[in-house]
Amino acid sequence: MTSGLASLLRERLRGQVLENEPLARHTSLKVGGAADLFAVPADRDDLQSLLAVLSERKVPHLVIGGGYNLLVRDGGFRGVVISLAQLASLELLTGNRIDVAAGVTNRQLVSFCRERGLVGAEFLAGIPGTVGGALAMNAGAHGGAIMELVVSLSTLKGGAVITTERGELSYGYRHLEQAPGEIILGAVLQLTTGDPAGLAERIDGYLAHRRQHQNVGYPNAGSFFKNPPGEQAWRLIEQAGLRGYRVGGAQVSEVHTNFLLNTGGATAGDFLELARIIKERVKERFGVELEEEVRIVGQNGD
Ligand SMILES: Cc1cc2nc3c(=O)[nH]c(=O)nc-3n(C[C@H](O)[C@H](O)[C@H](O)COP(=O)(O)OP(=O)(O)OC[C@H]3O[C@@H](n4cnc5c(N)ncnc54)[C@H](O)[C@@H]3O)c2cc1C
Fold it and tell me: 233-297: what fold?
């Protein structure tokens, strides 16, 4: 069935279709099983053709960006994982607005703004991943978050392209409400103009801050848990005595205790068990329920 679907998709699409693709190659934690199929549509029309086939055949799909916030279970993903890497247009509109597609990286967006003296997106400097992933997660740092820049969001829902103004969207800390299967195509962002030297200084400062505080040395997904209201997840994990705690190849970083590391040969199962222990200990000690910021997807292994 998978190879039949792969052949059909190769006939219908101009983009790439891979079979049995290890998702460890596409995530920063470097763990997880394979996707039945991994598709990289050539453009928006190609994506719509792909989704039409998947919807007709009732095949599940999962969109990924850079995989920097994703833990794929060891059994991989039954269905089609879709990368929007080829949807990467970035256009300056009037009034300091930018039309940015989901596959553009945060790094490209920040450079684009820096070169044009556009202020507001500096906090994205050093947050790895794509704009699609940043919007889906409402990524942020240093007091800023990407949804605050959004004028309108463009998504694919049930085969139709829908544009939604920010006021009609529901979002919060590392969260954007989406319908099941909804795909973010891009957004129009509102920037302002400002002093180019100050802009460059802020970007360089944020990058230096990350080099100093997040130099953890091993593959990771950034902060594994969300900060509970009024608390810092790293502090709770540290005070629960878990600095350096290890399950198999997965370990709590000694440098930043909300970063879980793949120190070599870790499985997704190691990360899931480590996360379970952290949640249990923090709950016992402080009565606080930690919630994963990392999205956990796919099937369990054997
Ligand atoms: C070293 C390091 C530091 C980090 N620092 C920060 C930080 O300061 N702040 C912060 O917020 N995050 C941080 N992160 C986490 C991560 O970089 C962000 O969450 C980023 O926005 C993820 O983007 P991505 O493209 O990699 O998304 P992915 O990890 O590929 O996907 C994340 C989620 O978004 C969904 N998704 C992705 N693209 C789309 C789309 N087009 N349509 C619909 N759904 C989509 C995926 O299905 C998944 O559920 C850090 C990670 C690392 C490794």
Answer: 3.90.78
Contact 226, 291 (CB under 8 A): yes
User: 69 C-alpha vs ligand 1 centroid, how far in Å?
Assistant: 4
Tell how far the Cα of 8 is from the centroid of ligand 1, in angstroms: 31
Instruction: Report the phi/psi class of residue 272: left, alpha or beta, with left for phi > 0 and alpha for psi in -120 to 50.
Output: alpha
* Reported CATH class of domain 2-83: alpha beta
Q: pLDDT (tens digit, 9 = 90+) per residue, 25-81?
A: 999 999 999 999 999 999 999 999 999 999 999 999 999 999 999 999 999 999 999
The CATH 3.30.43.10 domain(s) of the chain lie at 2-83
d(CA 47, CA 43): 6
In the three-class reduction of DSSP (H, G, I as helix; E, B as strand; rest coil), residue 151 is classed as strand
Q: Tens digit of pLDDT for each residue in 167-199?
A: 999 999 999 999 999 999 999 999 999 888 999
Whether 174 is a known active-site residue: answer: yes
Any atom of ligand 1 within 6 Å of the Cβ of 222: yes
User: Is the distance from the beta carbon of residue 183 to the nearest atom of ligand 1 less than 6 Å?
Assistant: yes
Ligand 1 site, residue 103, Cβ cutoff 6 A: no
Task: Determine whether the shortest distance from the Cβ of 184 to ligand 1 is under 6 A.
Answer: yes
Q: Distance from the CA of 184 to the center of ligand 1, in angstroms?
A: 13
Given the candidates 3.40.50.920, 3.30.465.10, 3.40.50.300, 3.40.50.1000, the CATH classification of the domain at 90-213 is: 3.30.465.10
- Quick check: is 223 catalytic? yes
Confidence label for 216 from pLDDT (cuts 50, 70 and 90): confident
Domain span(s) for CATH 3.30.465.10 in the chain: 90-213
Q: How far is Cα of residue 100 from the mean position of the Cα atoms in its chain?
A: 16
Alpha carbons 117 and 130: distance in angstroms, whole number: 21
Rounded distance, CA 78 to CA 60, Å? Answer: 7
